[in-house]
Amino acid sequence: MKPSLASLVAGLLFGLGLVISHMIDPAKVLGFLDLAGSWDPSLAFVMIGAIPVAAIGYRATRGRHAPMLDTRFYGPTRTEVDRTLVIGSALFGVGWGLVGFCPGPALTSLVLGRWQSWVFVAAMLVGMALYRFLDRAGAPFVRRYSTFISPR
């Protein structure tokens, strides 16, 4: 299987999982995040199911120098927690908590044709373009993640 076909199959499987788990429904996600109100714990079962699957996949990579369909593993080169990482994580969390979308489910939900999905994805793309522009302009507060190496 070619890498691009493997990527397509993995993406479709991921998207199917998001649809089946209802993670593309912002109301479901916001219900899970609403700990003080009418909390919906059902997405916790999605996480409980996903953790062992991811652990098995990660364990299968131990001792390998490269994945089956690529020449190397990709991972971040920087591991320190700094102000930029904390601020970016907080913005991501606040955005997720306000609208119930994060990038993967938002892209998957585009097929439903909801205007909210399209607005979110458009805003996300504008934010990505703004980051790229600031990175190229040499803005001092932009954290660079452009180089990846094996996490092992």
Give an overview of the whole structure.
The protein has 152 residues and is mainly α. The protein has one domain. Helix content is 60%, strand content 3%. The chain is built from 6 helices and 2 strands. The chain has helices at 3-20, 26-33, 42-60, 83-99, 103-109, 115-136, and strands at residues 75-76, 148-149. A two-stranded antiparallel ribbon has the order 1-2. The chain is globular and about 45 Å long. Mean pLDDT is 84; it is low at 146-152.
Proportion of helical residues: 55-70%
**Number of E strands:** 2
Biggest sheet statistics:
2 strands, antiparallel
Q: Helix segment count?
A: 6
What's the structural domain tally?
Answer: 1
Average pLDDT across residues? 84
How large, in whole angstroms, is the Cα Rg? 18 Å
Structural class: mainly alpha
The global form is globular
Uncertain residue segments: 146-152
The spatial strand order of the largest sheet comes to 1-2
Distance between the termini: 25 Å
Helix and strand run: HHHEHHHE
Strand content: under 5%
Topology readout:
Layout: H1 3-20, H2 26-33, H3 42-60, E1 75-76, H4 83-99, H5 103-109, H6 115-136, E2 148-149
Antiparallel strand pairs: 1-2
Helix pairs in contact: 2-4, 5-6
